[in-house]
Amino acid sequence: MIRSKILGLGSYVPDRIVTNEEIAYLDARHIRHDEKQTDTTPEWIRTRTGVEERRYVPNDESTTCSDLAQRAAVRALEDAQCSAKDVDCIILATLSPDIHFPGTAVFLQSRLGIDGDEGCPCFDIRQQCSGFLYGLQMADSFVKSGQYKRVLLVGAELHSHSLDYSTRGRDVMVLFGDGAGAVVVGPSESNGPRDGILYTKLGADGSGAQDLHLKVFDSQKMPHIQYDPAWGTPDVAYPQMNGKKVFLNAVRAMNLGTRAALQATGLTWDDVDWFVPHQANLRINEAVAKFAEIPEEKVLNSIQFYGNTTAATVPLTIDHHRKAGRVKKGDLIVSAVFGAGFTWGASVFQV
Ligand code: UT7
């Protein structure tokens, strides 16, 4: 059977850096006030989550999720040395789509200039923080089966428009940032023991669906929905999370997924270059590394700089460390993710 591989990778984050010092003073339009809008401290955010800063899109309602997706996609296509016209399938993972429907992948297709009568199929997938690995399994299967030859997989998130910037929403608001990451997946010419995408395994448990959810959105608007006091509590308008339950389940699923990935592939940490976990909380990743007995120096994080960018965290983290010269072409990566749904996954692949 043909094996698939990652032909190219790219990421994009907006320029605006919002530090832990600044975030408490922002309102829903990202305007800085003299008075604190949220009762939080830089120290709490850093020690409880690992986040030190995150990126926000400009606060002029000019940016959508597909905008971020396009910028990351263009970089991944350049890295893969192919053009948008070579793409015969798009998979876009997001929890912050441009609008409710149609899906954001078709907006991305138009932005890339490859829409029209011969336009390639476009999939939106909604697996939140697990979206990238869910998409990677789809892309891998499509390429292996010969269905498609160049699959563009993008994880993109515009979180900053749909967060509750009052004390009520502080547990969630401080965690998230805007950004996108993309890969191009295609056939591999070689099938050695380290070559290409070696393993993908996914799972889900719908009984956790209410533990991290958002009911409504219009992600281009600021705020993304006009709250009507007649609704009673504003829970409907903002993400709601049972943080402790999500935390514990994330550690468990990512530990088990990582162990299963090594067992299934017969690899050890000596064979693997990097562990790239989803970036939800530095403490989650430290706990996973401890329980899964992962050498500390092989764990790559980027939550300090970008917060949680949900479906974008894995490619964004890899690209961050590639730009810093740590990750090299051909490195072997084990990745594990967990998110709303609950959904989770683990994968072994070469970059
Ligand atoms: O991306 C996939 C899914 N997401 C995750 O995996 C996130 C998982 N959960 C977490 O990362 C953590 O549960 C949180 C970071 C969300 C919260 O950390 P925690 O250590 O579980 O804190 P907690 O919810 O137990 O809250 C401890 C205290 C509370 O105050 P009291 O009740 O002890 O007075 C909270 O109200 O911290 C308070 N708190 C804050 N204080 C300052 C919660 N958020 C904040 C905040 N600033 N931003």
Describe this entry's structure for a reader:
The chain has 351 residues and is of the alpha/beta class. The protein has 2 domains: 4-187, Thiolase/Chalcone synthase (Peroxisomal Thiolase, Chain A, domain 1); 197-350, Thiolase/Chalcone synthase (Peroxisomal Thiolase, Chain A, domain 1), CATH 3.40.47.10. The chain is 29% helix and 22% strand. It contains 10 helices and 13 strands. The protein has helices spanning 20-23, 42-49, 65-79, 104-111, 131-145, 170-173, 243-265, 282-291, 303-306, 313-323; strands at residues 3-12, 16-19, 53-56, 89-93, 122-125, 151-157, 179-188, 197-204, 212-213, 240-241, 274-277, 332-339, 343-350. The protein has a 5-stranded mixed beta sheet, sandwiched between helices. Strands 8-13-12-11 form a 4-stranded mixed beta sheet, with helices on both faces. Helix 4 links the parallel strand 4 and strand 5 (122-125). Helix 3 (65-79) packs across helix 4 (104-111) and helix 7 (243-265) packs across helix 8 (282-291). It starts with a strand and ends with a strand. 54% of the residues are buried. It binds oxa(dethia)-CoA (UT7). Residues 40, 44-45, 48-49, 129, 170-171, 174, 212, 243-244, 246-247, 250, 280-281, 284, 308, 339 line the site of oxa(dethia)-CoA (UT7). Residues 40, 44-45, 48-49, 129, 170-171, 174, 212, 243-244, 246-247, 250, 280-281, 284, 308, 339 line the site of oxa(dethia)-CoA.
Radius of gyration: 19 Å
**Which ligands accompany this protein?**
oxa(dethia)-CoA
Which parts are unreliable, with pLDDT below 50 for 5 consecutive residues or more? none
What is the oligomeric state here? Answer: single chain
CATH architecture of the largest domain: 3-Layer(aba) Sandwich
Mean pLDDT: 95
Order of helical and strand elements: EEHHEHEHEHEHEEEEHEHHHEE
Number of domains: 2
Which sequence of strands runs across the widest sheet?
1-7-6-4-5
Largest sheet: 5 strands, mixed
Which structural class best describes the helix and strand composition?
alpha/beta
The helix tally amounts to 10
Q: What is the number of strand segments?
A: 13
Q: Which CATH class of the largest domain?
A: Alpha Beta
Under CATH, the topology of the largest domain can be stated as Peroxisomal Thiolase, Chain A, domain 1
- Under CATH, the homologous superfamily of the largest domain reads Thiolase/Chalcone synthase
Through-space gap between termini: 20 Å
